[in-house]
Amino acid sequence: MSASLEGRCLCGALRYRITLPVIDAGYCHCRLCQRSAGAPVLAWLTVPMAQFAWLAGTPVVFHSSEHSQREFCGACGTQLLFRRSADPQTVDVTIASLDDPEQLPPQYHIWRQSRIGWFETADSLPRHEDSGPDR
Ligand SMILES: [Zn+2]
Ligand SMILES: [Zn+2]
Predict the structure, then answer these.
(1) CA angle at residue 135 from 117 to 18, to 5 degrees?
(2) Looking at the domain 4-114, which fold is it?
(3) Looking at the CA of 70, which ligand is closest?
(4) Which ligand has the minimum distance to the alpha carbon of residue 115?
(5) Is the pTM of this model over 0.85?
(6) In the chain, how long is the greatest CA-to-CA distance?
(7) pLDDT per residue as tens digits for the range 67-96
(8) What is the per-residue pLDDT across 37-59, written as a single tens digit (0 to 9) for each?
(9) Cα(33) to centroid of ligand 2, in Å?
(10) From the CA of 13, how far away is ligand 1's center (Å)?
């Protein structure tokens, strides 16, 4: 049996499980993430779709661009998922929605060109102005 991690939205109506290992984890500073969360940055993990499962609830889907959608709780508004139509085999999950977010520290920063000037993290992770070399 593979190790797994669980997470949920703020109110608990949506619960999910991811099976490890993840593909990667990183911070996104893009404007869409900022606006969708009302926060300066979002931390995402990426897993193969086959390693993600809803345990409870049905998310609301919002098409945040022509090529992507975000899934969140219709009751409390917590954003849990991001999917790209160009890459239907993987899904991004908000790391902070995990029951134990300490398990998956971010490994890089992307879309630094949209970084809010007063927001900076004290780490030496790779910093990419755009989507980064692998994405
Ligand atoms: Zn909720
Ligand atoms: Zn983003």
Answers:
(1) 95
(2) 2.170.150
(3) 2
(4) 2
(5) yes
(6) 44
(7) 999 999 999 999 999 999 999 999 999 999
(8) 999 999 999 999 999 999 999 99
(9) 4
(10) 5
